[in-house]
Model the fold of this input.
Amino acid sequence: MRVDPWAELARSLEGLHSAFADSYDAVHGFLDGSPASKECGRDAALAGTWGDRPVRNANIAPLSPVLVMLDHLDTLSSVFRSPGGVTSSHTLTRAILDIAMGPWYLLEPGIGERERVRRYMNLQLQSLKEQSQLETGTINTAILEHSKQRIANIVKAARAHGFEVRRDGDRYRPPFLGTQIPSTTSLAAEMIAPQLPTLGPLFWRTGSAVAHGQQHGISMFFERLDLPVNPAHGDTAVTLQASSRDTALRCGGAPLAVMAALRRLFAQYGWDTRRLNSAEMDAVNTWQAVAGIQAAVPGTFKQTDIDLP
Done:
């Protein structure tokens, strides 16, 4: 039976979201006895002006961006099923990579509650600084005052607990505790394929080129360069096209980023991973088959009859 490769890509992404939803809907948080639960049992030792339950906050915080990440994944599925969206799939892929990096970084296994709180507070400081800059050029507002006060509270508690506070008082950049948040490209490299560190940044930069409307990004979609419009000036009309094969190759960072973030979430929360493992296997096999990457595909999938345009 011949199948639509676009529909197959969409279906595999929907499977990843369903695997998350089944676990999330059952508990809406981490399970007793999970790594997150054990860390939260030591919350009192890190309480302060940044909050009474900083460890719990650090463990619960990833849920919000994960839900946003999956919302973008649903939109990518919709684009694959629609007649349009030739280039938007690449922009969505870049956004999914960006969103996934925060939860993936924050949920690294085995780092302990102190390091998790440090990372969480650095993410908070970054967000608060950017929020305060939304009010640049205006007289003090409630939003600006909230951001400044929250930053001050975090810095005060950090010092009380022996964290090194750096770059405090910088007008444009946020303070940070210990070391800075790693760069986007370094996180992408580790999150997507640490054994092939160029792959993650390649996915991210490809999506960025399209999102920013750069010529090298747009030209990836050019087809039919043989339609002259103004021969006197050498102008030529082109058609924007994207095959399912090319899209699977260039947007493969989306399912890989989602899988990486969900694996860490499931492990930290103590959720059963069997449904996720099955959805991951289906996504990998489907995207490899559509992309035409046969070497790493199990023999049973080499016979998959997918009509590649």
In short: The CA atoms of residues 48 and 160 lie 8 Å apart.
